Amino acid sequence: MANVRNAALAFIVPWPSILFYIAFLKLCHSSSTSEIWRWCWAHPIALVNALFFFNVDLLFWVISLLQNSTWLIDLYWTVLPVMMAHYYSTHPYSQTNLWRSTIVIILTWVWSIRLTHNYFRREEWQWGVREDWRFADMRRKYANNWWWMSFFAVYVSQQIFLVGVCLPIYAIHNSQHPWNALDYFATLVCTTGIIFAYFADTQLYNFVQKNKILRELGATTKPNLEEGLWALSRHPNYFGEQLWWWGLVIYAWNIGQGWTFMGAAANTCCLAYVTVLVERKMVAEKYREEEYSKYQGTTSVWIPWFKLKQKFDKDQKKH
């Protein structure tokens, strides 16, 4: 019953923004257009922030207090960029190159489908069973203050990151600059990022499932994944995700909107911090501490590279 309720909730929650935007599109060209509709027409980025604040920050926050879980924002991280892509492409203020707009929207859908699929298979196709472990840790750490801190730590912060990383999509739908060779390069970078992240996440998922089976059989599990893409990078999924967002920046830079790199840069900094948290968590687990420390000494953090065996051996000899 909880699974069905959460699924229905996930489909219902974005409708306040959707209905508002539909009303805006119908009335923005009316002769009796009010000030609010004129403001919405003239300020597409401000409008998307207003919708995000009321529909996600406030509504999702209230739901999280009622459910004692922030699971919705984790799911909607995979959905909101698609919604923003269609918002920017259909906004009356937009002007686009058809090829660039179409390709970016298709790629955003592919990125979203990949990430949503990975989310649900990781959650065993359940809705809202658990929240992100980082937020769960914060919930335990801040206890009685988490109810109000979560509004800023989970929702307002996500607004900054999500609206920020989607700024190139806004720029793409605010220019009729002709398609050129750099657009092909941007498409290649975005596509490579999606494919790279897919295979990295799939290898991780298969590794986790195999360990789960071994535990059920009472056999010894493998502490670390060091095969496939994970032999070349400790976080190949993060590397693929960064390629995707910086590929969008290349589109924007190509049309003279390089300022939009700010969102991707902030996201990269955040992911670097998350990488530190993940690695601390891995090393803190006694059964994998030694193996993961060795893995850290021989394997690149993000960018795929050859094993650094000599470096690790030298470090070991020093000790």
TrEMBL record:
Keywords: Membrane, Transmembrane, Transmembrane helix
Record field: transmembrane: 6-28, 40-63, 69-89, 101-120, 146-170, 182-200
Coiled-coil segments on the chain, per record: none
Name of one Pfam family that matches: DUF1295
Domain of life: Eukaryota
InterPro entries: UstE-like
Residues making up the signal peptide according to the UniProt record: none
Gene3D superfamilies: 1.20.120.1630
GO cellular component, one term: membrane
Protein name as annotated: Steroid 5-alpha reductase C-terminal domain-containing protein
Native source species: Taxus chinensis
